[in-house]
């Protein structure tokens, strides 16, 4: 029943913004603005002081709305939240985003009390609430921006669901992902997790056809057992990547004040998350990069890596990072090694890690070597490093061969180029399922994530 | 005397490309193309088969050149290198970039021999040679692109000199830096280091007024003692950041084939570089980020950090990374703490790490808190985290206060925003000496680099 209400939350036909306003200094303005810019369903504004806001008809109160909205976004003062939610529930609304703050995260006497009271109310209706104390959420594939930041609609549509306890972290990952071209299905800021916590989101996303991998940014955990059990269940269906903040005491303390729960013992939690099937990310770039690789590629079945690079330096860096994460540089079979020695001239490096530098503009040969190396029976996966040099006419990426090789084994790529130069190459590779990153380190670590996922779900 | 020739290398009035050609499948085409596009001095092409290439008059041989070029760029076949260089030396040329490969890095019988013979020749003239086996170098402030990649001229002019044993690494850092707006004075691919090695470059850059910090990407080290001594000397004058590849055996082995020297024991070398004054970077993003922070900010005199964030999540991540690197979250004095409690409402986090979330659009208050926290006598440096949310009208970065605070103590910033939204804000901050990064992790680690530099040069 709660799951049905998740459908209303993420795929509403109508949305009401309670506390919408013309004052651009208030959240209610931005929340309505986000909707107006992208949402194709019905939009209602509620505010007794206006007839119209941003071209949307405004109603005096929830009771005056001509229909029950599927989703209500609340940006009213904290003390008005309870009554607004009650009115909406009575009208039949079952999905809420509560942006307003001042609940159990705050140093206010009745914050905890108000949280409990509100939770009892919404639970009694089986309603779902994102927040309070959240920027909101976006469902990019439904053109739904239920947040106070219109610019989040600029994100690319994709297959990653990002579930975060911090809105700030979402606002950091979003522009990074815009620049890197990483796409999302849904981004949700859980805030104080009144009655939608990580485990609820995991349960919903398990069967969400628009999500291929799930990234979790976790500060505090209220119900570790439920979370771990759900990770075990969901990670068998699709990859779950988790980053846990609060490694040290100070950050840990900040978590309590932030969204109302202690971050707890870092090592203990991370080890539990891992044991239950999550791939652990150490930083925010890893979080989104691992989720990207896992959404695009199959798990890697062994530890043996081939590293093939246009230039030796990148190959060295990638090799170092593969080994740092516990992967092994593959020893090619004699047959493969012989063939590579026949194809490549002596200027190049013909052992693993392979350097194609001096045949760089011989696209056919580069492609052949890539296919040979990746296809070798001693190789379980590969990192391929290409960077732009010379000019587009001189240097061509052997995309066809890379795409063919990727059907054989999991692979990740580093492809970096001056703005505008190889966007089409990246597009071709990614539309064929090859995750492209900007540095050899993150390409290598993302290949490790493919291996780690395989290990986690088989333990 | 060698130093004088470095001036000709980096600030030539005339440049000749030996082996220039109209064939875009050859390096000689791209080397000339790079020059033609940006260089304002005299350009000569040498190739017996053409009268003109890319609008530049071509001469049949070096002997036919109407004047002695200050700098010669060689892209002739490997077997023609020795004679070309000899002719140029006899004509009076003393600075060379040798792009051609096939010397001691290659599995060719006489590679090592040719290397030695060429070295004896150029050394006898006190000439300087970048390469062989290099993409070349750029001196952005002289509009000199002496490389085979015209797009390197798109880099921003700045204060970092990047000296790399790998051209690939330069071609990776370049586009990253274009996107991040990181500027360089000079980028040099040392290649096989015929007679210009890291220690020679350090000696030259020590007095280079256009360089404020030096980034080294090192694979193998031929003369560790000379390098360490030069790092000790130069790091007392300006910061030196070093990244060492070849952490593991495989990468190490690749180094030999790459630019002709074994990478050697990673831990031993890194520890020696560090002891002599280098700040060690673990990856390529750290390398360029640390160099950026150190080019812009003063060293940090103690370990105590204030973390001030627009949103708590980023503050937690930054705090974790500060502590991971060994910095301590500062405990504010009672007076400062009291004042911050008076200024900030209870919804915010008023202890270190400070969260400004709920007063985000009160720019004046945010600025006051930043100045108070950074100015506190228990604070040695600060990380400030801002991300774009709501809209530009709603959220303003307190740039004036941040700039004022940065006069007191070293600080780094994380500022992230959708493409195009806050470019002017970043520009204002950076033109006032505040290094701005895209994630809280790298902002925190770069603050650590400011602390580490202080420690390294005082040990």
Automatic annotation (TrEMBL), chains A, B:
This is acetate--CoA ligase (ADP-forming). It holds the Pfam family CoA_binding_2. Keywords: ATP-binding, Ligase, Nucleotide-binding. It catalyses: acetate + ATP + CoA = acetyl-CoA + ADP + phosphate. GO terms for molecular function: acetate-CoA ligase (ADP-forming) activity; ATP binding. It comes from Ferroglobus placidus (strain DSM 10642 / AEDII12DO). Residues 9-103 form the CoA-binding domain. InterPro entries: Acyl-CoA_Synth/Transferase, CoA-bd, NAD(P)-bd_dom_sf, Succ_CoA_lig_flav_dom, Succinyl-CoA_synth-like. Its EC number is 6.2.1.13. SUPFAM superfamilies: NAD(P)-binding Rossmann-fold domains, Succinyl-CoA synthetase domains. PANTHER family: ACETATE--COA LIGASE [ADP-FORMING] (PTHR43334:SF2).
């Amino acid at each position: 029943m709660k799951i049905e209400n998740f459908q209303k939350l993420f795929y509403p036909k109508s949305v009401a913004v309670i506390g919408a306003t013309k004052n651009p200094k208030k959240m209610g303005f931005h929340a309505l603005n986000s909707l107006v810019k992208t949402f194709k369903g019905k939009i209602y504004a509620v505010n007794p002081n206006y007839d119209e806001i941003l071209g949307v008809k405004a109603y005096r109160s929830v009771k005056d709305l001509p229909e029950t909205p599927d989703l209500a976004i609340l940006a009213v003062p904290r003390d008005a939240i309870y009554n607004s939610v009650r009115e909406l529930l009575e009208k039949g609304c079952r999905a809420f985003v509560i942006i307003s703050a001042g609940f159990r995260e705050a140093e206010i006497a009745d914050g905890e009390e108000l949280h409990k009271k509100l939770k009892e109310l919404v639970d009694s209706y089986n309603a779902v609430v994102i927040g309070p104390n959240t920027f909101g959420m976006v469902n990019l594939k439904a053109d739904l921006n239920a947040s106070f930041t219109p610019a989040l609609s600029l994100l690319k549509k994709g297959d990653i669901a990002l579930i975060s306890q911090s809105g700030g972290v979402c606002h950091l990952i979003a522009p990074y992902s815009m620049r890197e071209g990483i796409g999302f299905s849904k981004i949700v800021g859980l805030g104080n997790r009144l009655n939608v916590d990580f485990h609820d989101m995991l349960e919903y996303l398990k069967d969400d056809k628009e999500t291929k991998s799930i990234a979790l940014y976790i500060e505090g955990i209220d119900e570790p057992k439920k979370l771990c059990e759900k990770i075990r269940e969901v990670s068998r269906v699709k990859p779950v990547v988790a980053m846990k903040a609060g490694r040290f005491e100070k950050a840990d303390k900040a978590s309590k004040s932030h969204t109302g729960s202690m971050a707890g013992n870092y090592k203990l939690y991370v080890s539990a998350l891992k044991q239950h099937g999550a791939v652990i990310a150490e930083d925010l770039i890893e979080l989104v990069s691992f989720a990207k690789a896992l959404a695009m590629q199959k798990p890697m079945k062994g530890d043996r890596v081939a590293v093939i690079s246009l230039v030796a330096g990148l190959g060295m860096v990638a090799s170092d990072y593969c080994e740092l994460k516990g992967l092994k540089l593959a020893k090619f079979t004699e047959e493969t090694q012989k063939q590579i020695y026949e194809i490549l001239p002596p200027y190049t490096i013909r052992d693993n890690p392979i350097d194609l530098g001096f045949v760089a503009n011989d696209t056919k040969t580069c492609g052949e070597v890539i296919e040979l190396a990746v296809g070798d029976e001693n190789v379980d996966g590969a990192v391929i490093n290409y960077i732009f040099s010379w000019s587009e006419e001189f240097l061509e990426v052997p995309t066809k061969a890379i795409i063919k090789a990727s059907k054989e084994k999991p692979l990740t790529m580093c492809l970096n180029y001056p703005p505008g130069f190889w966007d089409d190459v990246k597009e071709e590779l990614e539309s064929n399922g090859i995750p492209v990153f900007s540095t050899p380190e993150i390409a290598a670590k993302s290949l490790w994530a493919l291996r780690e996922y395989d290990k986690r779900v088989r333990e």
